[in-house]
């Protein structure tokens, strides 16, 4: 099992800008929470960066950099106060990929012993950077960490166990498009699909055809006759079956080399939402404000990119007045759904209630009417979302992170939003990168 160090793309760019242009070696200290997956994998999530001043070095040259005991004591105290781990960063000269030196090894052993006294048995990490790359490990050990950068793109900056196998000839046409490395990335990531109805079932179909082999499927519902016009893979014989089971059957029918975790449940429940922490990327195919609120918190709090999608058909006096689709990536550096004014607080409140609470609430007049849904519109929206995924993961040249589709006008436009400075979800003052150290806003029943 390979543990990870995850850092927002903007923070990584800050490290490069502040450390690498200098002739002499330089240092930084990252404060990181932890995200704990069900298989025992630990992901260090970088929350903030501290850059030492010139007076915080005892020595600094082209081949060495040593921080003062006073500076180390200060950051250790801050880590204890905030409950975070420390990641000590330093640079090496040259354009080659760096390796930890014997001097680094000796220094880390001393530093690790000091932090054990000051911070207790909490694990910390080390990162070395050069113009040629980087390398990371658990502080004072030889246990290396995969380094993942998360933003509009999800990229692996360092993977000690990485190797590119020759892709199957099945994917020859895709490899010609975005290369063997892009195909390998698709085959290695674990994608969660939340909602396996009209959009989610099509997403499962497209992803397994693209070569994705690891899935987490979440949906509380079963197939009904009214679903058959839009749920891909479902037949009359599947009526009464769980939607996740129908999707899993399709995926396995296409490829036996898949791992699928099926969860019949609503993501607004804490026990279900936590299953998504195991994902590398989430596709939000739900139709409720409450579930979207939970999914976006997971995306920012655990640094797991989420692509949210939805389609709408508006009507007036029995006539269609609009056909729209929306696809939006939720990741560090991008505005969340609250910042984009796309969530309704009252709808979120309602979705978080159980049925007895809804019946007693005087502000809820009745159940919601089913929305119109057409498989062709769903397919258009999903194709745009999956193309966005290919841009984020496989290196395909899809740059947009927020798209609006107008079916009546046959138009597609990119949208640029602005994150609010102190947003309680997507800002550093909010949930971002708190990992398992903070509770999700979910139902605990």
- Terminal CA distance reads 32 Å
Number of domains: 2
Shape: globular
Percentage of helical residues? 25-40%
- By CATH reckoning, the class of the largest domain would read Alpha Beta
Largest sheet: 8 strands, mixed
Tell me what the CATH architecture of the largest domain is.
Answer: 3-Layer(aba) Sandwich
Query: CATH homologous superfamily of the largest domain - what is it?
Result: NAD(P)-binding Rossmann-like Domain
Mean model confidence by pLDDT:
93
Short account of what is shown:
The chain is of the alpha/beta class.
Could you characterize what this model shows?
By secondary structure, the chain is of the alpha/beta class. The chain folds into 2 domains: 4-158, Cytidine Deaminase, domain 2, CATH 3.40.140.10; 170-437, Rossmann fold. Helices cover 30% and strands 25% of the residues. The chain is built from 11 helices and 18 strands. The protein has helices at residues 9-19, 69-82, 102-119, 172-188, 200-210, 243-254, 270-273, 289-301, 345-351, 355-360, 375-393, and strands at 4-8, 27-36, 42-50, 57-60, 65-67, 85-91, 125-130, 133-138, 146-150, 154-158, 190-194, 214-218, 259-263, 281-284, 306-316, 319-330, 402-406, 411-414. Strands 8-7-6-2-3-1-9-10 form an 8-stranded mixed β-sheet, sandwiched between helices. An 8-stranded mixed β-sheet has the order 13-12-11-14-15-16-17-18, with helices on both faces. A two-stranded antiparallel sheet has the order 4-5.
């Amino acid at each position: 099992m390979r543990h990870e160090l995850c850092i927002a793309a903007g923070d990584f760019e800050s490290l490069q800008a502040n450390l690498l242009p200098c002739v002499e070696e330089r240092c930084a200290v990252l404060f990181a929470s932890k995200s704990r997956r069900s298989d025992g994998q630990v992901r260090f999530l970088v929350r903030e960066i501290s850059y030492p001043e010139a007076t915080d070095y005892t020595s600094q040259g082209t081949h060495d950099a040593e921080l003062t005991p006073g500076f180390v004591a200060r950051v250790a105290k801050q880590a204890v106060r905030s409950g975070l781990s420390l990641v000590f960063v330093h640079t090496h000269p040259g354009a080659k990929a760096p390796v930890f030196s014997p001097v680094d090894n000796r220094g880390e052993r001393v530093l690790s012993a000091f932090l054990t006294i000051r911070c207790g048995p909490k694990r910390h990490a080390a990162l070395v950077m050069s113009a040629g790359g980087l390398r990371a490990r658990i502080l004072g050990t030889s246990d290396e960490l995969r380094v993942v950068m998360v933003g509009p793109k999800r990229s692996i900056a360092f993977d000690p166990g990485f190797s590119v196998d020759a892709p199957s000839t099945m994917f020859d046409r895709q490899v010609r498009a975005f290369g063997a490395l892009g195909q390998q990335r698709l085959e290695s990531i674990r994608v969660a699909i939340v909602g396996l109805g009209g959009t989610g079932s099509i997403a499962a179909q497209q992803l397994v055809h693209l070569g994705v082999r690891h899935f987490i499927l979440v949906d509380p519902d079963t197939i009904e006759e009214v679903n058959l016009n839009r749920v891909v893979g479902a037949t009359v014989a599947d009526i009464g079956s769980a939607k996740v089971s129908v999707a899993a059957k399709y995926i396995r029918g296409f490829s036996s080399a898949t791992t699928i975790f099926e969860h019949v449940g609503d993501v607004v429940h804490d026990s279900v939402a936590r299953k998504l922490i195991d994902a590398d990327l989430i596709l939000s195919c739900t139709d409720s404000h409450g579930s979207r609120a939970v999914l976006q918190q997971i995306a920012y709090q655990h640094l797991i990119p989420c692509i949210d999608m939805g389609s709408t058909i508006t009507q007036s006096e029995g006539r269609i007045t609009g056909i729209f689709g929306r696809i939006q990536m939720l990741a560090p550096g991008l505005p969340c759904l609250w910042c984009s004014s796309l969530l309704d607080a009252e709808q979120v409140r309602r979705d978080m209630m159980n049925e007895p609470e809804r019946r007693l609430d005087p502000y809820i007049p009745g159940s919601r009417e089913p929305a119109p849904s057409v498989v062709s519109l769903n397919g258009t929206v999903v194709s745009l979302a999956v193309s966005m995924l290919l841009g984020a993961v496989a290196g395909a040249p899809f740059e947009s992170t927020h798209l609006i589709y107008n079916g009546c006008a046959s138009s597609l436009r990119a949208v640029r939003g602005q994150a609010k400075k102190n947003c309680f979800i997507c800002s550093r003052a909010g949930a971002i990168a708190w990992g398992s150290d903070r509770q999700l806003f979910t139902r605990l029943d």
